[in-house]
């Protein structure tokens, strides 16, 4: 298969009469891509389009050649999504159960599920909480649990929607490092400008359009200047 990529062709989207994305055409292949923009710029809608959570009103979104409109199930197996609030994503009582539920849904053998869950818990320093109630974890630990629950499924791409917004400084650093260490392509919607300075590409959305598309060293100062 060619290098993993997500492509948008002439994508627009509206909620009723309110346009939120306007004629976007993009190909995302870089290992780390950030999406910046103010509230109402369309960035969260764009993020949810990348794995078919939202379908465009016009145009097409394809993931490694799969159309989100026609191939939604296959797309969601290739694109993991980590929500801003991990409580939205954590659905099972214990840490171990929550990490493993997606694997069970794919009807994997029990020994393979156990192996993958153990590896994911070890990777994100959650092994000691394995049998504990998920709701008792700290905010940062919950975010790592949400990431583990996505990564255990081995997607080709991972989309993060404001992954550090609800975190204190220590947990923010932990989650940023976890994103940096991912082998997968990561697309990160964020207001955290410091986090994206070592990314490969930064997109800035304004009123549903990409107004800046460049390396962080160029895009971030230009974005700050536009904020005025």
TrEMBL record:
Keyword list, A-Z: ATP-binding, Nucleotide-binding, Transport
SUPFAM superfamilies: P-loop containing nucleoside triphosphate hydrolases
Keyword Iron attributed: no
InterPro entries cross-referenced by the UniProt entry: AAA+_ATPase, ABC_transporter-like_ATP-bd, ABC_transporter-like_CS, ABC_transpr_CbiO/EcfA_su, ECF_ABC_transporter_ATP-bd, P-loop_NTPase
Pfam family, one: ABC_tran
Span of domain ABC transporter: 6-224
GO cellular component, one term: ATP-binding cassette (ABC) transporter complex
Coiled-coil regions listed: none
Gene Ontology terms for molecular function: ATP binding; ATP hydrolysis activity; ATPase-coupled transmembrane transporter activity
PROSITE patterns assigned to the protein according to its UniProt record, in alphabetical order: ABC_TRANSPORTER_1, ABC_TRANSPORTER_2
Superkingdom of the source species: Bacteria
Homology family: Belongs to the ABC transporter superfamily.
Name of the molecule in the record: ABC transporter ATP-binding protein
Organism in which the protein naturally occurs: Azospirillum griseum
Lineage: Bacteria, Pseudomonadati, Pseudomonadota, Alphaproteobacteria, Rhodospirillales
